[in-house]
Amino acid sequence: MHPAIVFLLGLGVGSLIAALAARVLVRRLFAKTRAAERRARAAERLAEIGGMTGGLAHEIKNPLSTIGLNAQLLGEAIEELPQDRAVDAETRHRLTRRLESLRREAERLRGILADFLAYAGEMRLDMAPADVNTAIEELADFISPQADRLGVRLRTETAAGARASVDVPLLKQALLNLLLNALQAFPAAALGGPRELIVRTTRGIDPDKKPIVRVHVIDTGPGIAPEIVERIFTPYFTTKSGGSGLGLATTRRIVEAHAGRVEVHTQMGKGTEFVVTLPACD
Fold first, then answer.
1. Which of 13, 22, 154, 168 pairs with 28 at a CA distance of 20 to 30 A?
2. Are residues 104 and 139 both part of a single domain?
3. At which of 121, 140, 164 does a domain end?
4. Are residues 46 and 103 located together in one domain of the fold?
């Protein structure tokens, strides 16, 4: 056989072997990268839960203090009850108020612990291909009465074919948290400005050339201060009286469990936009 042909055959075989070896190495590298990412996420998750303990202790402290005080006052009031006559209506009413306060704070404490356990526990997804637009329209129908009461114009703008593999109830929970957060910002907004809440779906391609679906939650509220934006996804951080501080943190966790991400863009005096990005499906 001619030496040139032998050389070319050898070059071809060598190139094929090199390509196969490179493919195996790339797969191994990809597997190692994915494993490292899983370990990093697990470590981040443990650190986050550890950091939540301080917030949980703070949240529990207030209702426990109220329960302790009311239990003490209730005990003192019972000791002072007359033994030789019936309890008068005023005293009965005062004792009933103490008992109601105990019940209310105990229920609040139960809610705090339930929220913590739900957030810290394992999230199990029941994934299935779904029309994201349908979930958006159902949420809009649900929340529109509240928007109407606040004088906020709610509208949806959906892109055809916005489908993703999701756990629909969990996705709705994540998006509902964003909608409620947006509505709660409006009472502080300037009365003369526009009061709109827009939920929009778009389709696109990510940097890896893979199809994605985006859900935009846009409000024309007062915007979010830069120092607050940095912390809004932190568990137990809230600027609202009576807020749990877990709404946006839960949204982020749900979205990331779907291999997605959530971003926030805001401008003081103009409004805020949350963008949820999810892998698309056929």
1. 13
2. no
3. 121
4. yes
Nearest Cα neighbor of 127 from 11, 245, 260, 230 is 260
Please report which residue ranges of 80-206 form alpha helices under DSSP H.
Answer: 89-120, 132-149, 168-185
Exposure of 114 by Cβ count < 10 A (0-12 exposed, 13-18 middle, 19+ buried)? exposed
Residues 133 and 50 occupy one common structural domain: no
Residue finishing a domain among 80, 96, 121: 121
Give the separation between CA 71 and CA 73, rounded to whole angstroms.
6
Contact 247, 181 (CB under 8 A): yes
46: alpha, beta or left? (left if phi > 0; alpha if psi -120 to 50)? alpha
Q: How many domains does the chain have?
A: 2
Residues 60 and 105 in one domain: yes
Phi/psi for 66 (5° steps) reads -65, -45
The two tokens of residue 19 are 């390509």
pLDDT tens sequence across 42-88 = 556 556 666 666 666 667 777 777 777 777 777 777 777 776 667 67
* Nearest CA-CA partner of 151 in 180, 188, 186, 200: 186
CA 133 vs. chain centroid, Å, equals: 19
Give the pTM: 0.66
User: 3-class DSSP state for residue 218?
Assistant: strand
- CA torsion angle 50 51 53 58 (round to 10): 180
- Rounded Cα gap, residues 91 and 101, in angstroms: 15
Looking at the structure, tell me whether residues 132 and 248 fall in a common domain: yes
Same domain, 3 and 106: yes
pLDDT tens digits, one per residue of 139-189: 999 999 999 988 899 999 999 999 999 999 999 999 999 999 899 888 655
C-alpha span between 28 and 36 (Å, rounded): 12
At 192, is the secondary structure helix, strand, or coil? Answer: coil
Rg (CA), the chain: 28
